[in-house]
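Pilot study result, target chain (328 residues):
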Amino acid sequence: LTDATDTIQTLVAKLNSPLRSTLDVDVELPLPLPATVSESRERIKQSAKEVAEAERRLKSLQLEQQQKQEQLALLDTRAAVPDREQLVASRDNRETGWKLVRDRLLDTNKSKDEAIATWLTSGRATIGKHLPTSLATAYELAVAASDALADERQDKAEQAATCDQLKHELNRFAERTIADERAVESLRQQHSQLMAEWELLWSGCPFAPLSPSAMLDWLSVFEEMVEVRSKQKQLTLRTETLQAKVSEFEGELAVAFPASTQAPSQQLVLAKERYESARDTIVRRRTYEEQLPQKQESLHSLDERLVVLDAEQRDWQTRWETLLDQVK
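Predicted structure:
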């Protein structure tokens, strides 16, 4: 019992240490099954792996995107190249101006003045400078600006193509980054849900669970402690039963030796001596009983011999008396 108690104390200390709590071993805990913990461990492990891989892919994509942006910035610092959007905007502005010129030539309706004013205002942003109030002059400037952009892009066609390609790739990277960020966030939410379910498995326990692997080891120690406690209870019950039998036997000794003032152990020695004496007496009696027929036969033979000897004695006595009479 002492060894079992020491073992239980050691196991309880081992259980309390990682949890930083004091476990009451007398209270039955609603612990999950090891198979359930093992399943949760595999699910959480797989989820963490998926999150890590998704984060790695996103980080790699962001790094590649940053490199593309640096390449584009480097090209822009060497010599500014009008991008395709600027050229398209300039051409659209030119076409709008031409439409207004054509409409003015064909129709002198002053309601067009508002459209012309709007075009002149928007053209400033496209061309990058103030336009004259004359529609024809402004249109000439718009055509010249558009042609200049086209010529500049043509002169720097290779650089422009590279810039266009980089911008196209950056747009694709932006779309992929958004998709990967959403994927990472979704996986993180799934992982958080698994962790919440993991903690829910232990909600009935007075402590927060560690990692699934650590709690599997913890459950193994707990099962060992439960097994030792079960053995301790069996030993305690057996000890109590033996103690009751000893008390009953001591009562019987007191009845057998009412006048004795000796201790039960000394009475037990005396009882043992009496038992051995009685056993020896029984053995001797059995021996005598086994030898009795043989002894009775010998006694009968001796009785017969005694009868013969008695007859011979009487015969010799008669002869002796006859001999004495002759001598006289």
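One observation from the pilot: The two ends are 105 Å apart (CA to CA). A full batch analysis is planned for the follow-on phase.
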